[in-house]
Specification:
By secondary structure, the chain is an alpha/beta fold. The chain has 13 helices and 9 strands. The chain has a 5-stranded parallel beta sheet with strand order 6-7-5-8-9, with helices on both faces. A two-stranded parallel sheet has the order 1-2.
């Protein structure tokens, strides 16, 4: 809100994003967030281990006087701040101080509180920041094990959204015969779908599948896994491996009805999770049993989410 207030107040705005190399969130990423959140303003990223408050260093004011001269050599008319030291900072810059909500009435939260408890203050996080903090749970396993139905029910249970299986959409449109290039297109679509969904999810995002699952589909469909499909850049925070203890059903986009093929598919799914040391739990039983097992697993793995 401070930046929106400031860019409405003045004709040209410079936002100084101050980070330290030791910060828990990469400074370059924070600067990227600001460029998205306040477009058409000048964003200056200062990534140096400098004091952030006067009490941190006896030379705080000379240090920051020099910083302001270097990053903004042009005359400064206004300094916008919600902090108690805003007036002195404006004085050092030769500018007029414009305070904004120092009592935190419009936004009763601080950056420090948000970083300490992001899920508690989720409603104050803008979309790109939500995408950074959101936890992902991927439903993993062979076809026809109730994953899509369970994804929708889990999303409803946790008041969030589910990212559907892009491969299903792809095969419904282009046919079920898939080459390695088709699987690459599915991977790209799945990654883009997940990235978009992360920005809208409520603390938790349910994935009907993920890019690792597509790599296993290459094993099953092609008998070989191309190296680029095996090089999965990002994994879910938790995998729920769906057991094959329910009957196979044909929905028009499925491939392996035989027991031997289902068992092999399940085996390579489990072996893949174990080989990569990814956190997972097996989910089985009827519809309601699977929902309860999945919800209980999520609550155990992410106790911090229940505080929001």
């Amino acid at each position: 809100m401070l930046c929106d207030f400031a860019r409405t107040y003045c004709d040209e705005l410079t936002v100084l994003v101050c980070t330290r190399p030791s910060d828990p969130i990469d400074g370059a990423l924070r600067a990227t967030w600001m460029r998205e959140l306040v477009p058409n303003v000048r964003i200056v990223h200062l990534d140096r281990d400098v004091p952030q408050e006067p009490r941190e260093h006896p030379e705080f004011w000379p240090i920051w006087r020099e910083i302001m001269k270097n990053v903004h050599p042009e005359p400064i008319d206004f300094v916008f701040s919600s902090e108690s030291y805003g007036g002195r900072l404006a004085e050092e810059a030769g500018a007029r101080h414009v305070p904004f909500d120092p009592d935190r009435l419009a936004a009763p939260v601080s950056g420090t509180k948000v970083r300490a408890h992001p899920y508690l203050f989720w409603d104050y996080l803008p979309p790109p920041v939500r995408a950074h903090y959101v936890k992902t749970v991927c439903l993993f396993g062979p076809e026809s094990t109730g994953k899509s139905t369970l994804a929708k029910r889990l999303a409803s249970h946790f008041h969030t959204i589910a990212a559907p299986e892009y491969g299903r959409t792809y095969c419904e449109i282009f046919g079920t015969y898939c080459t390695a290039d088709d699987l690459r297109n599915i991977v790209k679509g799945q990654a883009s779908l997940e990235a978009a969904a992360k920005r809208r999810a409520n603390r938790l995002l349910i994935l009907d599948t993920d890019r690792l699952m597509t790599a296993l589909w290459a094993d099953m469909l092609l008998g070989i896994r191309p190296p680029d499909l095996d090089a999965v850049p990002e994994f879910a925070d938790l995998y729920l491996l769906a057991d094959i203890d329910i009957p196979w059903a044909d929905d028009g986009t499925r491939y392996f009805p035989g027991d031997a093929a289902r068992q092999r598919f399940y085996r390579i799914c489990r072996e893949e999770l174990e080989k990569r040391s990814l956190p997972f739990e097996v989910i089985g039983g009827d519809r309601d049993g699977r929902l309860k097992m999945a919800a209980d697993a999520i609550n155990r793995h992410f106790p911090e989410l229940s505080g929001g």
